[in-house]
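WP5 quarterly update. Target: ABC transporter related. Source organism: Lachnoclostridium phytofermentans. Length: 333 aa.
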Amino acid sequence: MQPIYNIISMCGAVVIIYLGAKNVLGTGWVSWNIAAFTTVLSCFTKMALKSSKAAKLFNSVQKAQVSWARIKPLMKEYVEQDTDSTIDFSKAMGLTVSNLSLHIPGGAQILKNISFSATPGQIIGVTGPVACGKSMLSKTFIGEIPYEGSFRVGEQELASLSDYERSRLISYMGHQPELISDSIKENIRLGEQKDVLLYLQAVSFAKEVAQMPEGADTLVGNNGMRLSGGQQARTALARTLYNAQHILILDDPFSAVDRGTEQEIFENLRKLAADKVVILFSHRLYLFPKFDKVLFLYDGKGAYSTHAELMQENENYAELYQAQMAGGEHYEG
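Structure tokens (predicted):
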């Protein structure tokens, strides 16, 4: 809107010059001398400038109102989290899912009768064609998606867990993780005090961080804008491993790294998560032969077995895997 205000001001100045010139020449409604004319023109110019700034203020107020509407729901009084629980969090826990069904809220069914299980130390791969329900299933672990069936972490039904209990049992890295506007170190630690070097090494990021002038104290910028996409993803993965709970949910953690880095991170993940269950959602199947089990989602159903068995028994999985191997690492599936 600012250019419009400027145009209006310019038009006003043209009118003042035209009418003022007539007054100076004695053909207007009143007789002016040059001093009177320049005084009126100068006053109008200053008033137009002030009016233009006032218009910018109105625009700022409108933007502030929109921002406040977004922020206001978050401005709630902090309520101390209830940490009472009968769960023994020191014990390793497995995962058992039976006849799980997921629906779009108020809409169609996406997954039906999905069953699988995992024990500590296992890495489970979850894959399928585009829009098969991978992300929806991953968000079920953190309570964002209601479900039908049984979903047990250890001996506890997922739906019965409090927010505190869920946070002590499950760690989640989403497909588009967010970074805070702070250092690499603080993005990983989130206020804790353990050293981050082991976790930077685990995600093959330690050498790059060491070459930065400020090392792990390097600021990442707003939402990680000073880091590349691969560096952002590895920082987020290091944070998840640093704060790892019994069940690790990783949604496409290797999408922004090359095959060599993916292989290295996977081997480190196997060591760091030796007493945990890792559920890794991915459309890239390069490493799936090394996973303990694979859950293949297709047409709303799930096939759960080893990679080798799925290659023999599931034509759709075999076709997807072979297409990726033939098409190279950039094949999206």
